[in-house]
Amino acid sequence: QVQLVESGGGVVQPGRSLRLSCAASGFSFSSYGMNWVRQAPGKGLEWVAVIWYDGSNEYYADSVKGRFTISRDNSKNTLYLHMNSLRAEDTAVYYCARGLTSGSYTILGYWGQGTLVTVSS
Amino acid sequence: QSVLTQPPSVSATPGQKVTISCSGSSSNIGNNYVSWYQQLPGTAPKLLIYEDNKRPSEIPDRFSGSKSGTSATLGITGLQTGDEADYYCGTWDSSLSKVFGGGTRLTVL
User: Fold this and answer.
1) Do A107 and B35 make contact, defined as CB atoms within 8 angstroms?
2) Which one of A31, A75, B33, B104 has the minimum C-beta count within 10 Å?
3) What pLDDT digit, counting tens, does each position of A74-87 carry?
């Protein structure tokens, strides 16, 4: 069965960096587009970024463009989110999510349980 | 302010039908498929509807989706207390980003 497990969250000071990981199993990771979606406490869903199955394309929300980088290591079945210049408004639970099919990059068919990032001094 | 507009809340009694609307523009809903997600309290979201009106195999046919122009609708029939959740619509936007509605909280009275 499809399993996505996020890690790397925690408390970080404003302006600092953090890297999130998402370990994938139960499917052919290198065949699927992957996304990061976040949810601030008590708020709605906000899409963050998507990366193509082979890493050839990446797209970002305006709110994180230039600060966050999505990447993947298909040999390790792992998705990453590199977050720089963190701000208080980046505080959220971060979910990784897989495209429903190999061709549907942003139909979020499978989700991890999320990892909490708190940006605070 | 979300790109897609949903009512903040809806309510109904067990057994009834409820609809949740999602309004967008030609930059998003008008030219792209809509998906719907259910988020039960304290859990990760789950895909309910994709490509406007298709259901993953594990989703019961009490859930349905439709689209007309720049608006989409999620329908739930035979409401159950276990359907109490937040519901989000989402689609791709011409700004090259996925956008979500602000979410609708369903209360089953």
Assistant:
1) yes
2) A75
3) 999 999 999 999 99
